[in-house]
Amino acid sequence: MMWKFLSVLRSWMVWAFTILLLCTVVGIICVTLFLSNLQKVVSIYVIAPQPVAIVFGAGIQSDGTPSDILEDRLDVAAQLYLDKKVQRILVSGDNSTIDYDEPSNMMRYLVNEKSIPEGDVYTDFAGRRTYDTCARAKEIWGIERAILVTQTYHLPRALMLCSAQGIDVEGVSASLRSYTWSLKYRVREVFAFVQAVIDAYVLHPKYIGGAPETDLDP
After folding, report:
1. DSSP assigned state of 199
2. What is the per-residue pLDDT for 208?
3. CA 191 to centroid of chain Cα atoms
4. Non-local CB neighbours of 156 within 8 Å, separated by 6+ positions
5. Are strands 145-150 and 52-56 parallel, antiparallel or unpaired?
C-alpha cells in the first residue's frame, strides 16, 4: 500500500516539476520579449520617419465617437502625419457586426476632426485582435515598416506581434492622460502578452484574409 502511495506521489511530483519548469521557461521567454520590445518605444519627437502609422482600435461610443483611449491613439497618429513622420495612416479595428464599425469611425475622426486627407487614411475592417491587425498589415497591406500607435501598456505586445510577422516597427506611446480602469488593463495585459507569444510563435491562429489591398509600403 505504501509503495503505491509513493509511486503516485512520485508521479505527481514529476508532473508538478515539469509544469513548473515549463512555466519558468515560458516566463523567461515572455520577459525577454517584453523587455526587448520595450526598447522599440521611441518619443514622437525623435522617431524616424516611416511609410505608415498603424493605429489599433480601442472601442467607440454609441454615437460613433472614439473612446478616450482610442481618441488619444488617433490624435498621436494625426500628429505623426502632420509632422511628416508618416505618409499614410492605417486604422485597424473591429467591424464584426453591422452595428459596430471602429475603422470607419476612426477614419471619420481623423478626417473631420484632425483634417487628415481622406486619401491618406486606410481602413482595415478585420482587426479584431492585435494579432489580426499585425498579420493583416503584413499579408494584406504589404507593410514592411511602420510606426505603431497605442498606449504604453499595450505597446510591447503590439510591437512583439508585428515584429513576429516580419514588420520592422517602432512604437509611439498614446498615453496622454489617466484612464478609467487603467490598473485592470495593465493586469490583463500580462496574460494577454503570454497568449500573444503563444499565438505568434506556436499556434499561428487563422485570421480573416482576403485579396491584397493597396501596398502601403512602396
Report:
1. I
2. 81
3. 14
4. 33, 34, 37, 38, 41, 193
5. parallel
